[in-house]
Design goal:
There is one protein chain. The protein is of the alpha+beta class. The protein has a single domain (about 1-50, about 60-90), classed as Peroxisomal Thiolase, Chain A, domain 1 (3-Layer(aba) Sandwich). Helix content is about 25%, strand content about 25%. The protein has two helices and five strands. It has helices spanning about 1-10, 30-40, and strands spanning about 20-25, 45, 65-70, 75-80, 85-90. The strands form two sheets. Strands 1-4-5 form a three-stranded mixed sheet. The N and C termini lie far apart (about 40 Å). The model has no long low-confidence stretch (mean pLDDT about 90). InterPro entries: Thiolase-like.
Length: about 100
């Protein structure tokens, strides 16, 4: 999985700290759609549960209400049957003024 993530970040020319949101272990097609909607609407949806995470994980998990955020880059991580691992970075683009 680490190679897939590193490869996606390298292909996008980004450092991990430039990623605004990470979506993982859902349905990858829906995670990509969710990432695009997050970037479009500027809101990160909360997960519907409060997992018991050790403080050492240092995760900024959005729970409850959506959080406003200016997300420019999202990382979608997928893994599945047979041991496949994949990662995809989706990014916004700046539009030229017309």
């Amino acid at each position: 999985m680490g190679r897939a993530i590193a490869g996606a970040l390298d292909d996008a020319g980004l450092a991990p700290e430039q990623i605004g949101v990470v979506l993982v272990d859902g349905r990858p097609d829906l995670d990509v759609a969710c990432a695009l909607l997050i970037m479009r609407h500027g809101l990160i949806p909360g997960v519907p549960y409060q997992p018991d995470l050790p403080p050492a994980y240092d995760l900024d998990l959005v729970t409850g209400e959506p959080r406003p955020a200016d997300v420019r880059h999202a990382l979608v991580i997928a893994r599945g049957h047979g041991g496949f691992n994949a990662a995809l970075v989706v990014s916004t683009v700046k539009r030229e003024a017309r």
